[in-house]
Every structure is written in structure tokens, then in C-alpha cells.
Amino acid sequence: MSTATQTADTLIHPGWIVPVVPRGTVLENYSIAISDSRISALLPRNEAGAISADRELELPGHALMPGLVNCHGHAAMSLLRGYADDQPLMPWLEQYIWPAEMAHMGPDFVRDGTELAIAEMIRSGTTTFTDMYFFPDARSLSRCWTSRPPGPRTATSTSARDWPCGMT
Fold first, then answer.
1. Which residues make Cβ contacts (< 8 Å) with residue 140, sequence separation at least 6?
2. Half-sphere exposure at residue 21, Cβ-oriented, CA atoms within 13 angstroms
3. Are 118 and 144 in contact (CB under 8 A)?
4. Among 38, 101, 114, 153, whose CB has the most other CB atoms within 10 angstroms?
5. Within 13 A of 138's CA, how many CA atoms are on the CB side?
């Protein structure tokens, strides 16, 4: 969109814009126009006044950047954060995590842990994540995914390991 379009749904004026391209660039005194949920203009702040927007956000002291992507996750394990995390990987898994999962894991645990993880990811700028864990139906029914569109983007799968307790 050039400024000739003159309208946008939202006009954002952050302190800084950190685009992906060109690499290493930080733009100061720039604005972004959003139309139909897409970036329609990136322009110097002094030119943004020519655009009429339904909503305008002044965000001095804020940096605007693309969302972060978490490419490996087990979201429900957010409820186990810090549990014996001073152990080497295999003893941590075999002596602490797997027994804790066997004792406490269920659909409610997975749903609650996933909701906590999603809230933390949204707050920290993660907009897309992958997740592999047990009880995929509990994860997909998470209120965070269904109550407030658009929500985070995600790709989920179930465990690829046989478990004696039947968790899948």
C-alpha cells in the first residue's frame, strides 16, 4: 500500500520496528498500517498522518517485530518446569520426569499445562509453535486455542513412543 490508499484498519507507531529484511535493520520513527489483518504499509512516521485508520496505537518505548516461532515443544510440561532440572538429561527423564508423568498425567493436566504455556508464549511474543505430547484431544480443546481467535498458530502431534500406562 502506498500512502495514496489513505485508509487502514490499524495504524501502529512503535518506538522501533525490527523487520526480517534487511537483516540487522532497526527502523526508528516508522509506522505500520494494517488492513484486512495484513501489513499494508511500512512508512516513515511523518508520512503516516496521511492515512486514516479506525484504530491508532502510540507505542513509544516499544519494539515491533515479527512473532517468534518455537519449533520444538511439549507445552503441557510447563507444569513440570523446574522439577529436578539440575540433573543430566537421561537421569532427569528416567528418574524424575517419566515417573511424574506416569503418576500425574491425564487430560486435565495436559489441557491446563498447555493453556499455561500458550499464555506464556503469547506474552513473550511467540506466535507459532509445535507441540508433541500426550492426550492430543485435551490439547486441541484448550480454551486458549478456541476462545480468542486468531490465537497462536500450531502444529501438534502425539507421542511416538509406547507407554505402559496407555498414554497416547
1. 156
2. 0
3. yes
4. 114
5. 20
In one-letter notation, the amino acid at residue 19 is P
The domains found in the chain, sorted by start residue, are 7-64 (2.30.40.10), 68-157 (no CATH)
Radius of gyration in angstroms for the set of CA atoms belonging to the chain, rounded to a whole number: 21
Nearest in space to 98 (alpha carbons), one of 86, 108, 90: 90
Q: Model confidence over 60-103: pLDDT tens digits?
A: 999 999 999 999 989 999 999 999 999 999 999 999 999 999 89
What is the distance between the alpha carbons of residues 109 and 138, in angstroms, rounded to a whole number? Answer: 9
- DSSP assignment, residue 68? E
Closest CA to 34 of 12, 59, 15: 12
Using the structure block, give the residue that is written with the C-alpha cell 493453556.
115
Q: What is the pTM for the complete model shown? A: 0.73
3-state secondary structure of 148: coil
